[in-house]
Amino acid sequence: MTTPTNDTAPLRGRSRRGRMRPVASGAAGILICAVTLGAVMGTHPQTVSAVTSSITAADLLSIDHNTGSWIGGAAGVVVHRTASGDVLDNLPTAIDVNAIVSAGRDVLGNEEVYAAGDHGALYYKAGSAAWCRIAVPSAVFGENLTALASFGPGHVEVAGTDGLVMELTGPASCAATFVVDARVPGSATLNAIEHLASGTVVAAGNAGTMLVGHFDSVVHHLLFSPVVSDTLADIYGLAPSVHGVVAVGAGGLVVDGVISIDPQTLLPALVGHVLGGIPTVSSLRDAAAGFAGDATNLVPSVVAVGGNGTILRSVDGGLTWSITASGSTSTLHGVQLTGLTGGIAVGAAGTLITLTFSAPSTPTPSPSGSATPTPTASPSASPSGSPSATPTPSGSPSATPSPSPSASPTATPSPSPSPSPSASPTATPSPSPDAGGTSTTTSTTTSSGGGTTTTTTSAGGGTTTTTTSGGGSSTVTNTVTSTATVLVTSVSTSTTTVGQGGGNGNGNGSGSGGSGSGPAPGTLPWAHRLVEELYLEVLSRTADSSGEAHWVDQVMGHGQGPVAIAHALLGSVEYRSNFVQSVYWQYLNRGGEPAGVNSWVAALGDGMTQETVRLAFLGSNEFFASSGGNARGYVDALYTTVLQRSPDAPGEAFWINRMAQGSGPYPVAASLVYSTEQLEQRVSGYYLTYLARTAGPGELASWAHVMAQGTRDEDVILGFVGSTEYLSRI
Q: Residue 582: what are its φ and ψ, rounded to 5°?
C-alpha cells in the first residue's frame, strides 16, 4: 500500500494538484454504497485494481484527459504510456506539471502534446521532438498555469491563477502564440477547464468560480461570462455530463452544471446545483467522463477521484454517485476514462490505478426542471485606473544583470501620438520604405576581458548586407540598411497610418476582418469593446472598471482612438513590469527581485529598448552558468530560448568555434536576437494577437526589416492597432 497524503489546502497561488506532505494513516476501508438524489437511489458495483508505477516514484499530478497516454508529475516528470510500456519523457526543467494534454495529430501524423506548470511555464512537443517552452504573453509569466483543455489540433485552452484563460491562436509550434481571453487580477484561481463537444468552454476554480465561454466570430477568440455555481467551495475538476458539465471540489463537492442556450442572446448559459448525499467528505481533485461506442447513447459514465484514495462513479451522467474501493489511500490527482467501463487514475508517490468497472444498465436521467438564467455581467473587480506594477515573485538575486547608470540607452524615442488626423488609413499595417532618405547602419559588437563595446556607424547610400561564414555555416547579418521610418498618428476617427513611401511590404496573408456583426463603430458598446480588447491584448487582463470608464469617455467624448489607448497602456509601469518579469522567468527561470525589476522598468521608461534588456540577460553570467557554463551548452540554450528550436548542426558548430576563438556570450546572443528568424517570430505573434490571422511571407519580411533598423516593438504594435483591419475586428 502506498504512503497516504493529507488533504489540506495548498499555498495560495499554487495548483491545487501540487505535492502534499506524507502523513500517517490507517488502512483504507472498502465501501460500496448508495447515493441519494431526491428519490433516486442506486448502487454501482465495480472492481478496481491498484498498482504503483514502476517508472517513477514521483507524485503524479495530472493526466491527459483525451488519451490517457501522458501523465505529468512533480519536478518535471512526464510519463508516456506506449504500446510497449511506460517511458519517461521529462521536461527540460524541474517544474511541477500541473496539467498535460494531447491535442491530436498534425498533418504529418505527429502527436501534439502540451504541458503546463507554475510561473507561466507552457511546453510543447510534436512526435519524437524534444520539449520546447512556448513564450507566453509577458504578463502571464507571473501566473501559475493550472489546467489545459483541447478539442483537437489548433484548439487549446489554458487556465491559471488570477482568473487567467488563454487560447492558442494560429498554428501549433514551439513559437505558437497564445492570447489571453479572460483575466481579472485578484480573482480566483481557475483549477480546471473543459472544452465540450458542443464548442462551449467551461472553466472553474476557487470559491465556487465558474465561467462559460463561447467563440466570438467578431473578435476571433473566446468570450467568457461568470455563472452561478451554487457554492463557495473550491472547484478542482470538470467533466462532461448528461446535463452539460459536472464540477467536483473540496469536501466532496459535486455540482450538476446545466447548460442551455439563452433564448435572448442565443449564447450558452450555465447554472449549477450542488448535489446532496455525496458519500465522501474528501476533496475531489479531478473528474472524467467516458462514453459508449454507440453514438445513440449520449449518457456518459463519470468518475471523480480525490483524497485518501477516493473514487466516485456515476453511471447516469453525473446525477447519482457511489463510492468504491481503490486499493490505495494516497491522494489521487487525475483520472481518465477510455469508455464506460475502464480508465486510469494517478496520484501521490507514483500511484497508478487501473480502473475496471462493471457495465452499467442504461439509466433514465431525470430532466432538469430549472430554467437557466441569463449569465450575469462580468465582475467589476477594479484595481486602480492607473496600471499598477505586477507583484514580484521571490527569488535569489545572484548575478542579476542590472542596467548600468553610465550606459547610454538606445536613442529610439517613445512613440508620441499626434492630434492631427490622417487622410487615408491603411487597410492592413505594412511598413514601407520611406522615399525621403536611406541610411546604412553597421553594428559591431566585441567582448574581451570585463567589458563589451558596441560601435554604430551610419552613412547615406545604398543597401549593404554583410554575411559572415565559418565552418561551413552562415551566421547573422550585422549590417542593415535603414530605409523606412514608421510614423504612427493618433486620429479622431480611431485609425492610424503607417508612414509610407514607394512600394509596399504586403505578403500573401489574407485579412480575416470581422466575420460577425459587432457593435456599430462610434457607439457606446463599440467603445467598451475597443477598450476591453486593448486591455486584453496589451496588458493580458480585463479592464478594471475605473480604467475602462476613463477610456470609454475619452473615445466617446474626446475623439481618442485605439492608438491613444494603446500608447498609454504600452507606456505604463504595469506593461513594462510585465515585460521585465517575463524576461526574468524566460531567461533566468526565476522571478526578479524588486530592486532589479524597478531598475529595468525605469531604464525602459528612459528609452531603453526591449532588445537591450533581453541581451543584458542573455549575456549575463547567470544565464551562462545556468546553461552549463560552457560554449556548447550556452549556444544550445540560446537557440532554444531565443529561436524556440534546437540548433542546426552547422550553426551550433560555428558559434562554438567563435566562442573558442575568444568571442564572448554577448555577441552570440545579439546575433540571434537581431536575426531575421527571431524578428519574424515576433512579428508573427503580433499578427496573431492583434489581427487574429497569420502573416504572409512578404508581411513578415517587411516588418522584420523595419524592426532590424531599430523600430521599437511598441511602435510596431501601435501600427497594428491603428490599422483599419484591426478596427474591423471590434
A: -65, -35
Round to whole Å and give the CA distance between 100 and 343.
Answer: 17
Radius of gyration over every alpha carbon of the chain, rounded to an integer in angstroms: 27
Identity of the amino acid at 511: G
Residue found by looking up cell 447513447 in the block: 297
Assess contact for 366 and 319: CB atoms under 8 A. yes
Alpha-carbon distance of 147 to 193, in angstroms, equals 6
Please say if the pLDDT value at position 146 is more than 80: yes
- In the block, residue with C-alpha cell 510500456: 85
d(CA 84, CA 69): 12
Q: How far is CA 203 from the centre of its chain?
A: 14
Average pLDDT, the chain: 74
* Residue 646: partners with Cβ closer than 8 Å, 6 or more residues away: 130, 636, 639, 640
- Cα of first residue to Cα of last residue in the chain, in angstroms, is 58
Cβ neighbours of 615 (radius 10 Å) = 23
384, 548 contact by CB (below 8 A): no
Q: What pTM was computed for the model?
A: 0.65
Q: What is the DSSP string of 70-129?
A: EEEEGGG-EEEEETTEEEE---SS-----EEEEEEE-TTSPEEEEEE-STT-EEEEETTS
494 pLDDT higher than 50: no
Dihedral sign of CA atoms 563, 564, 570, 571 in order:
positive
Q: How many CB atoms lie within 10 A of CB 232?
A: 10
> Cβ distance 430 to 498 under 8 Å?
yes
∠ CA 443-445-449, nearest 5°, is 165
User: What are 700's three cell numbers?
Assistant: 513578415
Q: What is the pLDDT of residues 39-96, one digit of tens each?
A: 232 333 444 555 555 689 999 999 999 999 999 999 999 999 998 889 999 999 899 9
Indicate the helix (H) or strand (E) that contains 550: helix 545-558
> Are 100 and 351 within 8 A, CB to CB?
no
The two most distant CA atoms of the chain are separated, in Å, by 88
Measured at the CA of 682, the angle between CA 137 and CA 688, to 5 degrees, comes to 70
Q: Which three cell numbers stand for residue 503?
A: 512600394
Element (H, E) at 635: helix 631-638
- Residues 6 or more apart whose CB falls under 8 angstroms from that of 451 comprise none
Cα dist from 568 to 392, 529, 548, 564, 634, whole Å: 22, 17, 13, 6, 37
452-475 exposure pattern, b = at least 16 Cβ within 10 A, e = fewer: beeeeeeeeeeeeeeeeeeeebeb
